[in-house]
Amino acid sequence: MSTESSEQVLDYPFRAPGPLEPAEEWAKLRAGCPVAHIRLPSGDRAVLLTRYADVRQLLADPRFSHQLAQEGAARIATNESGTVFENEAAASLVDGHQRWRRLLNKSLIAKRVSAMQPRIEAMTEQLIDDMTRQGSPADLLGAVGFPLPVWVICELLGMPGVDRDKLAYWSNTMLSVSHYTQAEIDAAQAEFARYFMAHIAAKRAEPGDDLLSELILAVDEGQHLTERELMMIGQGVLVAGHETTSNMIGKMMAMLLADRARWEQLVADPSLVRVAVEEVLRFDANAGFGLPRFLSEDVEVGGQTLPRGTTVICSMAAANRDDQAYERADAMDLRRSPNPHLTFGAGPHSCVGQALARTELQTVLSVLLRRLPTLELAVPAGSLARREGLLVGGLEGVPVRW
Amino acid sequence: MRVIVDTEKCCGAGQCVLVAPKVFDQRDDGIVVLLDAAPASELHAAVREAACVCPGAAIRLDEQA
Ligand code: HEM
Ligand code: SF4
């Protein structure tokens, strides 16, 4: 493949040979066709980047956003509400020019995170208690991976933990484009809006020690945030922080248990947890679609000029396995350091919740190592089923015994 | 020990702040702020861990200084 073969258009996303394995196309494209032409599920055309340097460059470029609700941008899917990138809540989530983005900055969440760690640990312990009470075998994704991140977001926003099932349903429905009808999606959005407006009113009346109360009191350019902006933050944090983290907990455990030596290494030395979680994040081959960027002006990437108006898909997962950036990129090394992977994006738009996500992953792993050192997969790793989602890849379940 | 941070490499992950909050902080945009370039010896272990887990390799240590 060379630039001459740019006639060739590949159907995207690619199919991977196994639930935890990378698509075969990645290595070929990185080596021979770093700027590949692809056809999205909608039929629209885009360009795919797979090399570490190129993906990093484009993601970190403050000129481009992943707002695809712009004229001329490719559509990813063709159903009514579009993907998370095209619906309004998500579009505002990624619009860096909005006031609330400045207020919901990285440090705001990162600073709360260390204070929250003991609570996250207590929640994890409780979920594992419930799981072990039901007995072995169990689905680790359903028992821990799925409930924990919503519970943590409840806590972050000062919502009662008992509401977490409702919130999990709304978040699921708002994000999923294939599993629910348009009527269900609209209803979930309306119910969430009613619930959250009431919650804002309660926090205005009686502020607590939570992110939402802090944001209500915050002043930007002499003005407080409006109800609508607060609403967008609530919805944004729920949609961005729930399914991503849930899926990552499931995939982390699947990757670490798929090869017993990895789990044993961590049982023997739990101080590796922080560094190991970074390697898990890097190594995830089932990361979903990648991040789109819409080019509002010409840009040079990988020695080629991409014209303005192009929709570019950045595959962080392919970039994370680029052997130009990593030694033995295809091997999982739980001691790898430094590890500047691109799983949370890069530069100014990169994930606001990454400190929280890391803490959740580190906590789940530490508690499981301590509580259930004999943990193992209850099915062969190759038979785990992928959950096909456009935005965040995951597994249908992670059956385990101990 | 002397600590040097490279804000160009920092990706704002906040790992350093989680590990060694007495030595590192973050600006509003997430970029690292060095609070203490010559931390006391009881902080050295935490600072070494921060340098090791920093995803951007943005923290350098001069152990001789
Ligand atoms: C393992 C879990 C997670 C992964 C893999 C992940 C990944 C990402 C990625 C790739 C982006 C886009 C960056 C870009 O456009 O360049 C992003 C944005 C975002 N994430 Fe996360 N995320 C995770 C967890 C969380 C959590 C727990 C929260 C909330 C507490 C969160 C909140 C956000 C928000 C608000 C944005 C939008 C940032 C912006 O537009 O500037 N994420 N995330
Ligand atoms: S850990 Fe490294 S990349 Fe992250 S904020 Fe600190 S210095 Fe920056």
From TrEMBL, chain A:
Belongs to the cytochrome P450 family. Its cofactor is heme. This is Cytochrome P450. It comes from the Bacteria. Pfam families: p450. Coiled coil: none annotated. InterPro entries: Cyt_P450, Cyt_P450_B, Cyt_P450_CS, Cyt_P450_sf. Keywords: Heme, Iron, Metal-binding, Monooxygenase, Oxidoreductase.
From TrEMBL, chain B:
Keywords: Electron transport, Iron, Iron-sulfur, Metal-binding, Transport. Residues 1-29 form the 4Fe-4S ferredoxin-type domain. InterPro entries: 3Fe4S_ferredoxin (IPR001080), 4Fe4S_Fe-S-bd (IPR017896), Fe-S_cluster_ET (IPR051269). It comes from the Bacteria. Ferredoxins are iron-sulfur proteins that transfer electrons in a wide variety of metabolic reactions. This is Ferredoxin.
